[in-house]
Design goal:
heterodimer; A: mainly alpha; Cytochrome Bc1 Complex, Chain D, domain 2; B: alpha/beta; five-stranded parallel beta sheet; four-stranded parallel beta sheet
Chain lengths: 195, 430
């Protein structure tokens, strides 16, 4: 019986090797398919689809998985995210993590941006560090992100359609309670103003 | 998998080892300045040019294109409603120049796959190592009696955006209130499957605003069409579809819809087995289509009139080192859309660079995303992710906007349509 086992093992080993060499997920091949909506190398021309370059690998993976699970609401992204395996999403994440970020060149209201700057400091900076320029622990990059995208997501957080971490929900409730719903617009103008 | 042998195992291991060692090693020596010539500077051709250069700047890439600029077919229906200018859908080739792509404005008159050269009208011959043919579609005028390229200057097809789009817009502006617009929709397969129905929607939106007693009749060569449920939902909601006062009427093939002829002198479409006549104030005939003329002349098409390709690389199955991408190729089950052309071009660019560098092609991946704008603040979409299975492109995920999408979602989908347009055009031409 032992004799029969050895070729079987070889067969399994051979299979896994040929899969990994000929069928490995290719980050550039996969990532380039996103450019039609998110721009070449993930740098978006806006206004509603975000720039997705320079994200931490985990941030990208978590985003795709939250679209897949439906935890994060979307129009089209669930339909897209469902098409990729974990391995493919990881390869895409590596691809976009390696691409430089470019702040969007867009219009903003300077007065609202000034108000938003203060709100950011008081309510957001603790997690969206360095004025929202730094992606850490899934915070993503807010500075220089497209305003329409920010507005949609702030509205979804506010409505409870997009779940937020407990801390964030608390801070947001406090901010809107004290400064009104217009404070969300101040914030998006602030991030839009950053170059 | 029973044919995996010990020998195969060893070969596979060696390949893995080679792939790993190559990553850190300098490029294998090869002839400098290998040449890729691209026939056609539309969505597919221009994308391929840019992505070949991005992947390997040592490759000389030349686009040969008839027109000095390109008008996108996508969003050209918004020019008809007046929501968009014709200039906003026009793109030049300066952006590609920055990527080191040479663009020659000329007409290709012949392709010689044996001698590996392309002949042009004014600039002589171009030798190539790899050739990309991306000619889009040609219109089969002979499928509609009384219709030809000359008649199309006044009874437009406007299926290649540009001067005819402007003509059709002017005709709509000049039409009296209470007038009839008739659109002949083509049989499958054709460029932009939801396009005729988005066009009807955009025209109805314009008429509702300015000439509310008017209507649009779609004369269809088919029994069903792309995103049909979503379109008819929107038409019911926005344009009274299904009522006596509907601004849009759709006649299927079985309801005498298929247009077989045009009486140009009387601006009348002739359709169905009974020869039903539809006299219109504005008549728009979108005829059946096949691969662009140069693909036919170069023996790249099969009996269907479209170009068969290896779906992993988009290399023609008829001629070696010739690749066909975009609307002209057979990429079932991808539709003939702008996003599909852009996606195919990237697979093709990767395959060409791999073959020039003597490397193995990676696993291809394909996406389509297609928006239609059916009214003010009302967008709908279809999307899909595809992968290669055997020699077929198979849909793995995707689908349509849900029928019960909220007003906010529809509004956002219109904004995503504009975002898609801004991004895909910069991805192609920027």
């Amino acid at each position: 019986m032992k004799k029969a086992v050895i070729p079987a093992l070889l067969l399994v080993a051979g299979l896994s090797v040929s899969l990994s060499s000929a069928q490995a997920a290719d980050g550039a091949m996969l990532g380039n398919t996103c450019a039609g909506c998110h721009g070449t190398n993930g740098v978006s021309s806006g206004p509603a689809s975000p720039t997705i370059s320079a994200l931490e690998k985990d941030t990208f993976v978590d985003m795709m998985n939250s679209f897949k699970s439906g935890d994060r609401p979307s129009t089209i992204m669930k339909r897209i995210a469902d098409g990729y395996t974990d391995e493919e999403i990881a390869a895409m994440a590596d691809f976009f993590a390696s691409k430089p970020y470019k702040a969007a060149d867009q219009k903003f209201d300077a007065d609202k941006a000034a108000a938003g700057k203060k709100l950011h400091k008081d309510y957001c900076e603790k997690c969206h560090e360095e004025n929202g320029t730094f992606d850490s622990d899934g915070s993503a990059i807010l500075a220089g992100q497209w305003k329409t995208y920010l507005d949609y997501n702030l509205a979804d957080f506010q409505a409870g359609d997009r779940p937020s971490p407990k801390k964030m929900a608390k801070k947001m409730k406090k901010m809107v309670g004290k400064h009104g719903v217009g404070s969300l617009e101040d914030l998006s103008n602030y991030y839009a103003s950053q170059k | 998998m029973s044919n995996i042998t010990r020998r195969g195992f060893l070969k596979a291991s060696a390949a893995t080892a080679a792939a790993v060692s190559m990553a850190g090693a300098p490029h294998v020596a090869r002839a400098a300045g290998q040449k890729v010539v691209i026939v056609g500077g539309g969505t597919a051709g221009a994308t391929a040019a840019k992505y070949i250069r991005m992947a390997d700047a040592s490759v000389e890439v030349t686009i040969i294109e008839k027109n000095a600029s390109y008008h996108t077919c996508y969003l050209s229906n918004e020019v008809l409603s007046g929501d968009r200018t014709i200039e906003s859908i026009e793109f030049g080739y300066d952006g590609l120049k920055a990527h080191g792509v040479t663009t020659v404005i000329d007409e290709v008159t012949g392709i010689d796959p044996a001698a590996k050269k392309v002949t042009t009208k004014a600039n002589g011959d171009f030798a190539y190592d790899r050739l990309v043919v991306a000619p889009g579609v040609s219109l089969k005028y002979d499928t509609v009696d009384g219709y030809d390229a000359t008649v199309a200057e006044t009874i437009t097809h406007a299926w290649k955006a540009g001067s005819q789009t402007v003509t059709l817009r002017k005709q709509l502006e000049a039409m009296k209130d209470g007038g009839t617009v008739a659109i002949a929709a083509p049989p499958n397969p054709f460029r932009c499957p939801p396009g005729p129905y988005e066009r009807a929607s955009q025209i109805a939106m314009y008429l509702k605003r300015h000439k509310p007693k008017s209507k649009v009749i779609i004369l269809d060569s088919k029994e069903k069409f792309s995103k049909q449920g979503l379109f008819t939902n929107a038409w019911t909601e926005l344009y009274g579809y299904g009522t006596d006062n509907s601004m849009i009427e759709w006649r299927a093939k079985s309801a005498e819809g298929n247009v077989t002829g045009v009486d140009a002198a009387n601006n009348t479409a002739i359709s169905g087995e009974m020869g039903t006549e539809t006299k219109a104030d504005v008549l728009n005939i979108i005829p059946a289509q096949q691969a662009g003329a140069i693909a036919v002349a170069a023996d790249l098409v099969d009996d269907s009139g479209w170009c068969p390709v290896d779906k992993k690389t988009f290399e023609s199955t008829k001629h070696k080192d010739v690749y066909v991408i975009g609307d002209a190729c057979i990429a079932t089950s991808m539709p003939k859309s702008g996003y599909a052309a852009n996606s195919q071009a990237k697979v093709c660019a990767t395959a060409i660079v791999a073959s020039l560098q003597g490397k193995e092609m990676v696993v291809p991946s394909y996406v389509n995303t297609c928006y239609s704008i059916v009214g003010e603040d009302y967008g709908i979409s279809v999307a899909a992710v595809y992968r290669l299975e055997g020699d077929s492109i198979k849909k793995v995920s995707g689908g349509l906007t849900p029928k019960d999408a909220s007003a906010e979602q529809r509004k956002r989908e219109k904004m995503y349509a504009y975002s898609w347009f801004a991004n895909i055009t910069s991805d192609i031409f920027g």
